Amino acid sequence: MEKKPKIPAELLKVSRKAGKAIMDFHMINEGDKIAVAVSGGKDSLSLMHVLRHRQKISPINFEFQAVHIDFEFSDFDPQRLVDYLEREGFSYIIEKVDFLKGEKYEEIDCFWWSRNRRKALFMLCERMGFNKIAFGHHLDDIVETILLNQFYRGEIGAMKPKQDLFKGKIALIRPLAYVRETAMEELAKQLDITSVGQSKCANDDTSHRMKIKHMLKEFEKDHNCIVKNIFRSLQNIREDYLIEAVG
After folding, report:
1. Looking at the DSSP assignment, which residues form a beta bridge with residue 36?
2. Which of 99, 168, 220, 236 keeps 20 to 30 A from 182, CA to CA?
3. Quick check: helix, strand or coil at residue 92?
4. Does residue 205 have a pLDDT over 60?
């Protein structure tokens, strides 16, 4: 009898946490058709493996497909990503758009890259019948966004684990919402995943987000629950101590 391939231990750990997040926030329902936003970075590629594992063990029937938005930058070719997806047996769509055609990926502004990518994803979902878009954002990404909004926008908000848009026609889901970045790094090692495409943004290393990431790492040297506590804080709001808007 042919032995089934052994599932990496870290994939099981991450999949269990993803399963809990999916249940807690009602991310996936029967018959969902999910577009997984795959940039080519380790997190989004790892999410493909996690969803495939969830699909095998879940009583809920759902479909998912990798979707890569190809802006046709002059200095980027998605072929390595295509090769990886085909080698791993993942179904995929490469969506070519011309919002930023002719620009250089290494010089693109992070805000415009993200905004135009999301716009292209919405258009593709409407055309192809996807009702959910899954992102590879993990717990650290969400917490960094909370602080980014407070530090640089003067507002309290985060990337929600699940967010309904367009009167429920599309939902954004983040199945890795309970998973720490360190666990994702270990999973990528076990799956032998290296970045085969674009990361979150070419200029991430010099962004405000990276500064906050480094700050949190320093704080966690003294208190390893800081990131988890920031995440929990948005579910533990003491309204009596909030300042009412004025003016």
Report:
1. 66, 134
2. 236
3. strand
4. no
Strand stretches in 38-185, DSSP E: 63-70, 92-96, 132-134, 162-165, 170-173
- Average pLDDT on 70-91 reads 87
For residue 18, is pLDDT > 70?
A: yes
C-alpha distance from residue 92 to each of 52, 66, 96, 183 (Å): 13, 4, 13, 25
pTM of the predicted structure, to 2 decimals: 0.91
What's the gap between Cα 245 and its chain centre?
32
Residue holding tokens 């966004």?
145
What residue ranges define each of the domains in the chain, with the CATH number in brackets? Answer: 9-241 (3.40.50.620)
Letter string b/e over residues 102-123, b meaning 16 or more CB atoms within 10 A of that residue's CB: ebebeebebeebeebbbebbbe
Judge contact between 75 and 105, C-beta under 8 A. Answer: yes
Quote the CA–CA distance of 237 and 3 in Å, as a whole number.
50
How confident is the model over 26-53, as pLDDT tens digits?
A: 999 999 999 999 988 899 999 999 999 9
- Which residues, in sequence order, are CB contacts of 96 under 8 Å at separation 6+? 70, 72
How many CB atoms within 10 Å of residue 176? Answer: 30
Instruction: Please name the residue that has the structure tokens 């959910």.
Output: 132
